[in-house]
Recover the amino acids of this structure.
């Protein structure tokens, strides 16, 4: 679960004590704020300057949020919701691109212990199971999206189905891209075909 775990083991240099005077909810925003503050500090933009932040990616929106809140003393009430939506879509579409290139993360600790034929069988089985997962995810995603047809988001009033549709769309694209990548011979660096 990474950063969402109840406990996390990390190098001591990466851990910082949060002062007791800072609320946990505010402390949780330190990392995204640090990214945005770092980017903002490199721009040379000061209060009353005109700045353009382009790119509707999550980091760009967080930078925009920080800039408005701490430089202009105004708040972008809509940006958090948009960041969440952009993140869901970018993850789902990004997984399709990675599948097309054959570059999904894989644990290959046992690959060196297997003979070449067994490695190919394990690689094919992993591809097949990933494809089956994509099909199941697409079907479940469609069902879930259909349940939200009448709902709207709280701030932007965007139809919730437009956000949740990323799941079935991304899953179908990933399955198709996997097949296309397989057909054109795209294999990640750890696959048997890339090694043999």
């Amino acid at each position: 679960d990474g950063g969402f775990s109840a406990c996390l083991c990390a190098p001591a240099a990466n851990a910082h004590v949060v002062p007791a005077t800072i609320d946990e909810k505010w402390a949780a925003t330190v990392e995204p704020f640090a990214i945005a503050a770092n980017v903002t500090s490199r721009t040379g933009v000061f209060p009353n300057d005109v700045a353009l932040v382009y790119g509707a990616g999550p980091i760009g929106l967080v930078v925009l949020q920080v800039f408005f809140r701490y430089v202009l003393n105004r708040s972008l009430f809509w940006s958090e919701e948009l960041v969440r939506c952009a993140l869901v879509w970018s993850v789902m579409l990004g997984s399709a691109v990675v599948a097309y290139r054959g570059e999904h993360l894989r644990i290959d600790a046992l690959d060196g212990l297997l003979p070449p034929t067994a490695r190919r069988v394990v690689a094919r089985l992993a591809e097949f199971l990933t494809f089956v997962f994509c099909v199941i995810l697409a079907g479940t995603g469609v069902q879930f999206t259909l349940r939200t047809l009448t709902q709207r988001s709280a701030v932007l009033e965007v139809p919730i189905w437009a956000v949740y549709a990323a799941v079935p769309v991304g899953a179908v694209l990933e399955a198709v891209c996997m097949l296309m990548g397989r057909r054109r011979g795209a294999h990640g660096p750890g696959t048997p075909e890339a090694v043999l």
Summary: Confidence is low (pLDDT under 50) at residues 188-196. The chain has eight helices and no strands.
